[in-house]
């Protein structure tokens, strides 16, 4: 479901997520489509900075925790090392980050923001503040906390399911 379709659905009224509902109306489908819509909104807003949500996340992560290794950034951002490496290459080509040798391990490079990268990270934070305000409109802190608790439980269940599958292989 696209953002526009979601707006139409919400203007009609709340949808039911009964256990016997068709797959596109179940809570899992709603979570997946909502996540996709959130990413699309962020990508749209970050486009004016020539960034995507993933690139902006990496910039902001480096602002908070850099300099770090590519592996550490990938792990903390919960994405693959290859994808992170690609993002680092793209940001480095734009002069937003730089690689530095790690004095503790000559085989490893540290990644840190350049001054231009710091400016762009600050602009990305401003966009994030506005988007989060828009997304949270009409949703109380208690509702957000309850949702977060359910989502964390679902993530734990997914991790358990994946672990049990890996043990069976």
Tell me about this structure.
This protein has helices at 3-12, 27-46, 53-65, 70-77, 81-93, 115-135, 141-168; strands at 68-69, 97-102, 105-113. The chain is mainly alpha-helical. It has a 3-stranded antiparallel β-sheet. Strand 2 and strand 3 form a beta hairpin. The longest helix is centred in the last third of the chain and has 28 residues, at 141-168. It is globular and about 55 Å long.
Task: Give the topology, please.
Elements: H1 3-12, H2 27-46, H3 53-65, E1 68-69, H4 70-77, H5 81-93, E2 97-102, E3 105-113, H6 115-135, H7 141-168
Main sheet: strands, sense, barrel = 3 strands, antiparallel
Classify the helix fraction into a percent range. 55-70%
Lateral arrangement of strands in the main beta sheet: 1-3-2
Tell me the number of helical segments per DSSP (H or I, 4 or more residues long): 7
Low-confidence stretches: 6-13
Number of strands: 3
- The shape is globular
**Structural class estimated from helices and strands:** mainly alpha
**Average pLDDT value?**
88
What is the end-to-end distance? 34 Å
CA radius of gyration is: 19 Å
Beta-strand portion reads 5-15%
Q: Order of SSEs, N→C?
A: HHHEHHEEHH
